[in-house]
Specification:
Three copies of one chain form a homotrimer.
Chain A lengths: L1 H14 L17 H19 L11 E6 L5 H13 L2 E4 L13 H7 L4 E8 L6 H17 L8 E7 L4 H15 L9 E6 L10 H10 L5 E5 L8 H13 L3 E5 L2 H5 L4 E5 L4 H12 L3 H16 L8 H4 L8 E2 L19 H6 L1 H9 L1 H13 L3 H11 L7
Parallel strand pairs in A: 1-2, 1-3, 3-4, 5-6, 5-8, 6-7, 8-9
Chain lengths: 398, 398, 398
């Protein structure tokens, strides 16, 4: 039964035109439609193989390096899980312990850690205008190292969240939608509300909402972006979403009311983020290591946030959605009213009703990351899947 | 020769009635007598296989997660060694680096780290009345996640020390006793003195003495528990030990003098722990993050400890034991008079004479942990051992 | 083609007389000439095998423990890469997290972490007169543990930098020279200038210059050591280099001018280090945890350094070298004028011109470490290399 499912997915994969071998994964919109589908298919195959105790290990040895410039639970464990399942050992590069403090350049560090590394996963989402650039600097460095014969292999860079996109999250979100609605084609015409929500915190990156509108706009969906005045996203990502929505036969609306976005929505994604200006000021204050300024900014920002406490995903708001039954999505952890804070992004009853869905949504992430790495490492991904399924090597002995 | 030993142990294992598949290991007294024996036998087989370069790897890939809420050397390395030997990669979940600070619930975190995890080892021994509960919350969370299809496999939880029991330690202690006296049946009638000892430190958990009396009372031993007034253990663990001792044909005495406990003892286990009241106050002060209160409590507690400086395992006290030759046990590190402190739990000459024994005692721990995991993962543990021995895969190529 | 290269190296290896099985690697001068060559040959084979996707994994499971008493990027990743490639899992022993703070002795800790460890890599370079001693204490401890049957295997200790030598660095430097000049015999008569260089930092260990003169003096090279007055190395290492240079048909000169050392040099290695007296005082202040004293010393030391700001490897100085084309070496990271500091060890143009070389130099380190471990673990290293090449197990599936 599951073997049949796997075979079908591999047949689909074979029909796609992709150029992912030896390529990095930074922004979903740098990947073609077929490449997005291929990533989903491989992730689904891996999830199924894992469930049925078939190893998809492709490496005998090797390192998968992670660089986290921001704290992380699920992305850290998803990355560790993904590289482990492929046969690599996760090795965290912690700048605090390293000689970066001694003035190493990105070029040098990137090469020094890569002599035997196959992947570098990077989370750098705090510094607006810099995270994506940093990832590209790392790529340029290892590319040069490889060309000059310093590195025997070219490590793939996977974006574990930048200032622009959070592709491993958005792809996991998409995988959940595909599963929930029964196919990628079923997303056509569905309305997704990506909306800001109140939270008594500040400084949450813009990359999740940007990633969501930048990806979901490619499947004929009706994308509604909503946030209070001042909580703009990077303009180019909004423009991109608008353009992609048109091209894919969907639509894009940009409104300033949660209610309007929720109206008739099939999916809602209410999530807090910092305002653009706050992120810019925060970046500059962090660079200046201006602790007093940061405290001041946090206070100002929380006061600003507090004006929009009614941007909460309540039962009442959920009633506005399609048949009052929209799928609630969140990248987690959510700020839950009465649970993790006094008042937050979502009411307790709404959040708890959807727990099986949000956890299930999260469960795709390790497999999505593994798929991204696999597709950059294996020249004929469909054939290798067939080989591994035929070999049927058990992950755990039985 | 060693193959013969292995075969004998496997034959013994086959005779036992156990239900350990897919079960957690939290408290030794939740396991049947046969299950305790099975754990010892598998641990002994692994130790022998390791010595003779036979791999007992059962996983091709997978994660073994550890959560340490208290510092640790030997348990950390024992866990890392155990999961590595089974083929898993140890991944530490450090709450400091995680989003727990962002208000994640135990349920959510437990699921988020478990998508590809096979084991979760937890040390949570500081908070009286909470450590064991936390472990059961994690179990409930992953059980629910597994039932709802969020987790493809159900990670086994192994107690690496709670407020109630320290089963990996107590089982290693038991393995040493079995080896030292030449069989589990030889423990019948032996007297073990689990006694408090003076230490210029405070806040040492109660789980080691509780674990020792909770386990050793099941083999017909004469268990003597001794401590100064006020240094009580959890009453239910003392009751349990008393009851088990009776049922197993041994005895249990609870005295307030080290000398009395040592008298004619075959084994002595002198070790410091905090008083019950101190642990309770400390827990509340820690929760309140009351640093001044903690300092104050430490002072008071050390003053209280200082009243019992004569509770030291000296040569003189050792003379009270059976033929003056009791086996000295300790979970390490010990507070050694004139070595690691001015005055402590044990005199230098006693400690040093028994170093080969205490180190040997510690050497069982990684294999005990590996056995606990193995028995929860392999449906027919005896048959799988036979298969691995027949395959004779070298751990290191020769 | 590369198989032919590999076969040649293995034939060379077969001719060497070595006794490295079950031995540690602390100081290059404790190894015979043949043993140094064997280490290079195995490292070169591993580098070639890695490049051509042939796994050289010799362990199915096992731990490779690292103890870093000083920060590290490249050595940390080199060690992690090396043990991973051999099939071990790197496990860092962080004293901060451990019970060392509870007063464990070296003997106890060394045994407690080694029950299933095959290697222990140690970096302890800050404390003059202590780092090497500490490594030997660890060796004595695990040796004793092994002899007494506590440890089933005896972990190999590899010096990842001590107060005396930095053998993994010096061996990587030598591997680069062998490659650059086309053979170990071609080093005869070449002049290498190991010189102090100015840096606005203090407390850099003496082990790199000591390691370089202690190794390069064995191949008939003309070794020139230069530093300002007061920046002496350990006298015994200088004496050793002098003696070895004579015996190998080379020469050794000890001068107090960078220009003189650079004159007609084939290789220059300009690098900052602290003065001997500073390292001694620093050690004592660190032991006393005298923060004010350390600040004071740093200030004094930087003032002293500042007298020698002209000890910079500039284009002008490079013109003094053989045909103005000496190979520039550095262990990285360098203090580059106008890049990582206002004024430092080397000018920007010199440093950048040699980047491919210094990075290539660094790229040998993981393979050198792997070779050191391999030679201590495999009784017939040439035969095992032949077996692995014949098996041709791919590191990544293709």
């Amino acid at each position: 039964m599951y073997l049949h499912t796997l075979q079908n997915k591999i047949q689909e994969l074979k029909k796609l035109k992709i150029q992912m071998f030896q390529r990095d994964f930074l922004l979903t919109w740098e990947k073609t439609y077929d490449e997005i589908l291929a990533t989903l298919l491989v992730a689904e195959c891996f999830k199924e193989m894992h469930k049925h105790n078939i190893s998809f290990r492709i490496f005998d040895t090797g390192l998968g390096i992670s660089i986290f410039k921001d704290q992380s639970t699920r992305t850290r464990f998803s990355f560790a899980s993904a590289v482990n399942a492929l046969g690599l050992t996760a090795q965290d590069f912690d700048e605090g312990k390293s000689q970066v403090a001694h003035g190493e350049t990105v070029r040098e560090t990137a090469n020094m850690i890569s002599f035997m590394a196959d992947v570098i996963g990077i989370r750098d989402d705090i510094f607006l205008g810099e995270g994506d650039k940093y990832q590209r600097q790392v790529i340029a460095a290892v590319e040069e190292g490889y060309e000059k014969g310093i590195l025997a292999q070219r490590p793939t860079v996977v974006n574990l969240q930048s200032d622009i996109d959070h592709p491993t999250q958005a792809m996991a979100d998409l995988a959940k939608l595909k599963d929930y609605f029964g196919g990628i084609d079923r997303l056509k015409g569905k309305k997704i509300a990506m909306t800001w929500a109140y939270s008594p915190s500040y400084g949450k990156p813009l990359s999740v909402p940007q990633g969501v509108i930048g990806l979901m706009s490619r499947f004929g969906m009706k994308v509604a972006l909503a946030h209070p005045k001042g909580y703009n996203l990077l303009p180019e990502t909004v423009e991109l979403a608008r353009k992609q929505a048109q091209e894919s036969g969907g639509s894009f609306e940009h409104v300033d009311s949660m209610d309007e976005a929720f109206k008739d929505a099939d999916i809602v994604y209410p999530k807090s983020w910092a305002s653009f200006q706050v992120m810019e000021q925060r970046r500059d204050l962090l660079h200046a290591n201006n602790q007093a300024g940061l405290k001041e900014l946090e206070k100002k920002c929380l006061e600003e946030n507090a004006k929009y406490m009614d941007w909460e995903c309540t039962e009442e708001k959920m009633k506005l959605t399609k048949n009052a039954k929209a799928l609630y999505q969140h990248c987690l952890p959510a700020d839950i009213t009465g649970v993790s804070c006094k008042q937050g992004e979502v009411s307790k009853t709404v959040f708890e009703r959807y727990i099986p869905h949000t956890y299930h949504q999260a469960s795709f992430k390790p497999f999505v990351i593994a798929a991204m790495i696999y597709l950059s490492k294996i020249g004929n991904p469909a054939a290798m899947l067939e080989t591994m399924i035929a070999e049927n090597k058990n992950r755990i002995k039985v």
